Amino acid sequence: MKPLEGRKRRFRDRKDGFLxxxxxxxxxxxxxxxxxxxxxxxxxxxxxDITHTQDFLHTMRKSQIPRLTLYHIIxxxxxxxxxxxxxxxxxxxxxxIYARNEMKGSMVVMKxxxxxxxxxxxxxxxxxxxxxxxxxxxxERLANPIDRNVKVKNDKNANDFDKLELALDLLPNFLLxxxxxxxxxxxxxxxxxxxxxxxxxxxxxxxxxxxxxIGMEPVYHHIYxxxxxxxxxxxxxxxxxxxxxxxxxxxxxxxxxxxxVVDERICDGFIFALGFRQIxxxxxxxxxxxxxxxxxxxxxxxxx
Length: 304
Description:
The chain is an alpha+beta fold and about 300 residues long. It contains nine helices and nine strands.
């Protein structure tokens, strides 16, 4: 099940999204007041109690999902949140707000941990009602073929993003400037070819980077001016603390720090709060990700 599956495109809709036609006055004016993502990004951070999540991880690795990681759980939690708060899956283009018609995440995959190591991107796509096992399988399906011992240009399993990247790298700078000027102009008007957005990590529902994998705390990562990403999340290393409860008992807790940059134009603060409350709940109690949501909500786009 995809977002807004079966909905027919109408005038002013795009290949990658449907125009939100029922905005309140403030929602309609905001893209004109704040023209760019640099003008409209909001930063926030939170820490999530993953004490129970760690136990869940160890149990599932021994039984149902041997390659399960915390990263997989975070992706699955975000997919679940989007299924319950679909307004998060919006983007702004040409002073209009659109509901995206797919669930697509983006992530960087390092081809090593040396100073000269290269990187690639994968863009897993998910069904709205995906469970944790399916999210894990989709990410692994794209990540496992990557040969981390060779350069991108020598990787026989190079994905389509790598091939496009290598082709663009052959162009001189003046041609690259023209190509990206043209792509940005086409994107602003909704005319960018679907073949390009399919390969672009910058045209995704969300982008998540794992700073904890290199021993760092999360950073506030910008949301790119190029493309339609509205939410970028960074996760950091885990922190163990000892807390005293109201009865004077000391408990060991493990927390995960996360930082997000979001485009505030896509929805109001209340909707963001609902969405990120759902993400925190699913990460802290990942058992709920093993079963499908009772109901999948679709974005309400039309005037009553």
